[in-house]
Design brief:
38 strands, alpha+beta, six-stranded mixed sheet, 34% strand, 11 helices
């Protein structure tokens, strides 16, 4: 088999199967396998990966061993000629794996190959091109590491391909031939938990005469993290790993000097270990020392360089042959006695420091914004190289995010804060979340009333929470704005109430029963809540009341030489319908949507269209006639006029009749109805006839 991709993992969550998916996708067509080394994961990530990718082989530890033993476990079970090591949270870009394999084969397995390592946004599973790492330095005195720019590395051309010498190895992504891996004794299976295993493997390679070469062409994204989120690293175990590296790779004098310096750096206290940090470190190191001594003998017998050559090759200040080495008593160094003056203990880093970051956040827009309750609002980071920006919006939905823009919303009102961070730069801004609630929805407003040259004005209101922000809310007309006019008439900072008036200008079409005009509340330039507005007009007479063919109890009194408050001088034999106005009448009117007309329309007019006139032409507003309080029933339910039992109850009689109603007369009257200046479709008809003796009946056909 040409190659094996080895992925070491412990509780990686969904990052593990995403890593495997990227490997499967980018290695398609290659003769290679994928081996997952499971360091006793218990979060189900390995099982999910096996379910998604049955072709993946899994080898595992039953109990936690650490990164170095797990990588070595995967390598021992791998069948490929080239071993490609990846962390369980990496994303190889297309062509990266094939390029690494080609590089190893081109160099005939004589070198370790490292790719360009970028940051990786795991939420979007996207590499961050602005955050790239190339060379990795190693300082031998404290075993500190740092990224180096590409132009600081020594070029190493080989067979038409340009490589660069890299002082140290970062273990998240590299390739090595199987024979070289075995010759270097692989990853140390006795290193504890996490850390130093990659530095140890890379230093062994250099001292054995096999360089670490960097190829900038292949790109692999890596999740860099500022703290451990899936396991803990005891500080004493990290220091033990440093001791194993130094003991295996340093000559005796350098080892002695380095050991004393390491002890001085790590002589503080340790929780749950009253003997102190250094005593605990030395105990753990001593327990595993035989395996380190065995590997040391193998390496020193075969290596072609020493640590002095390495320091000179990469311009390190220590160790130097020409300097006088400090020669402490080896017995005292190995005694494990605590230093009387403790110094701070180093804290392990969960991963190598990220490559140099060019991301810089200088601000956020919008700044100091007013936003709507429950409405999405998008913020944009200002600055340079902003793909790696992380967002925090406590109380928002969502409350975190990544990228140069971030969309969230809040379901609580008041002051909120949103923060954008990238590398060591941060910007924050406050936002005020405002909720607007309208009193009613929809608003039904009438059209004009030209009869008395007035305009129908409808009053309503909305409320703002928090009340102090009431002046930050504006009202606007949306949709077909020509249908209404809108005016804000008052604001109350104590209650957050906004009063406004609406006037109808143009009727809403019948085909738009839900309206096509809105009133919008605007906060910070964005629309919050809105309500529909429907402009209604009287359309037609729905029906008179009583219904057709129902007899009406006559209340009209035929006057014939009788005395009444409404009596005129009558000639003998003439009959006058003197109390016609006390006949009650209810008319129900529909709007354009065939619904009962809204109560705001008051003051209907009923006109006689044609037919024989009696003593009065009914061309005045019925509501002004004393016997009729609301005769046309303009309301949500029919209204009934007051019924007068006899002529004595009548008031405000009309002018003197001009023509009497004689016996056996049969009169049909037809009336038109006008409401608010709008003539209605349909009409009203009634029949008047005289039934002897001296009785007039009114019927509605």
């Amino acid at each position: 088999m040409r190659a094996s991709i080895i992925i070491a993992a412990h509780n990686e969550g969904d990052r593990l199967w995403r890593t495997v998916a990227s490997c499967v996708e980018t290695s398609a067509g290659l003769d290679c396998e994928i081996v997952v080394g499971d360091d006793a994961s218990w979060d189900g990530s390995v099982e999910e990966t096996q379910q998604r990718f049955p072709q993946v082989r899994v080898v595992r530890h039953d109990e936690r061993k650490g990164a170095s033993p797990t990588k070595n476990l995967g390598a021992r079970h791998a069948r490929g000629e080239t071993l490609v090591f990846l962390d369980g949270h990496t994303k190889p870009e297309p062509g990266a794996i094939e390029r690494l394999i080609e590089d190893v084969e081109r160099l005939k397995g004589d070198a370790i190959i490292t790719p360009t390592v970028t940051g990786l946004c795991v939420t979007r599973w996207k590499t961050l091109d602005h955050q790239q790492g190339h060379g990795y330095s190693l300082e031998l005195e404290r075993l500190d590491c740092a990224w180096q720019p590409l132009d600081s590395l020594r070029p190493h051309p080989h067979r038409g391909r340009l490589f660069y010498e890299c002082p140290a190895l970062i273990g998240c992504a590299f390739a090595v031939h199987r024979e070289l891996y075995d010759d270097l004794r692989g990853f140390d299976p006795h290193m504890l938990c996490w850390g130093v295993e990659d530095l140890d493997f890379g230093l062994k390679s250099w001292l054995m005469g096999h360089p670490i070469l960097h190829d900038p062409e292949p790109v692999i994204g890596h999740r860099f993290q500022q703290r451990f989120d899936n396991f803990e690293v005891p500080i004493e175990q990290l220091i033990v790993n440093q001791l194993r590296l130094a003991r295996k790779n340093f000559t005796e004098a350098v080892w002695s000097e380095w050991l004393e310096r390491c002890r001085n750096r790590n002589s503080g206290t340790l929780t749950n270990h009253p003997e102190g940090l250094w005593a605990r470190v030395w105990q753990l190191f001593t327990d595993l020392r035989p395996s380190a001594e065995h590997e040391r003998a193998h390496l020193l017998a075969r290596r072609v360089h020493d640590e002095f050559w390495f320091a000179n090759r990469f311009d390190l200040p220590w160790p130097k042959l020409q300097s006088q080495c400090f020669e402490p008593s080896f017995r005292s160094m190995e005694s494990g006695e605590a230093d009387p003056s403790p110094s701070p203990s180093p804290s392990p880093s969960p991963s190598p420091s990220p490559p140099p970051c060019e991301c810089k956040v200088t601000g956020i827009t919008p700044t100091d914004a007013n936003v709507c309750f429950g409405k999405d609002v998008t913020f944009t980071a200002q600055g340079e190289h902003l793909d790696a920006v992380t967002w925090s919006a406590p109380g928002g939905t969502p409350d975190t995010g990544t990228g140069n823009t971030f969309t969230t919303k809040w379901e609580s009102t008041g002051l909120q804060t949103i923060t954008a961070s990238c590398c060591d730069t941060t910007a924050s801004t406050d936002v005020r979340v405002i909720k607007v609630t309208f009193n009613e929805d929809p608003i039904r407003v009438g059209f004009t009333i030209p009869v008395n040259e007035s305009t129908m004005v409808y009053f309503s209101w909305c409320t703002c929470d928090p009340p102090l922000m009431v002046n930050q809310v504006s009202l606007e007309i949306g949709g077909v704005a020509s249908r209404i006019s809108l005016e804000t008439v008052g604001r109350d900072i104590r209650t957050g109430r906004i009063d406004f008036s609406v006037m109808g200008k143009e009727a809403t079409p019948k085909i738009k029963p839900n309206g096509d005009t809105t009133i919008k509340s605007i906060v910070g330039g964005c629309e919050c809540e809105s309500i529909d507005v429907i402009v209604i007009v009287p359309k037609r007479v729905m029906r008179p009341y009583p219904q057709a063919n129902d007899d009406v109890t006559p209340v009209n009194v035929v006057l014939n030489n009788t005395t009444s408050p409404a009596r005129w001088d009558l000639r003998p034999g003439e009959v006058w319908l003197a109390t016609i106005w006390i006949q009650w009448l209810t008319v129900i009117v529909e709007d354009q949507f065939e619904e009962v007309l809204h109560r705001m329309y008051q003051g209907a007019e009923v006109h006689e269209k044609f037919g024989r006139k009696l003593y009065l032409s009914i061309n005045q507003r019925i509501s002004e006639v004393g016997a009729y309080l609301d005769p046309v029933g303009i309301d949500s339910s029919p209204a009934v006029s007051e019924v007068l039992e006899n002529s004595n109850a009548a008031r405000d009689w009309p002018s003197e009749p001009t023509e009497p109603m004689r016996p056996a007369d049969n009169v049909v009257q037809r009336f038109a109805v006008t409401v608010g200046g709008h003539s209605l479709e349909g009409g009203i008809r009634r029949r008047l006839f005289w039934s002897p003796p001296n009785r007039v009946e009114v019927r509605w056909p």
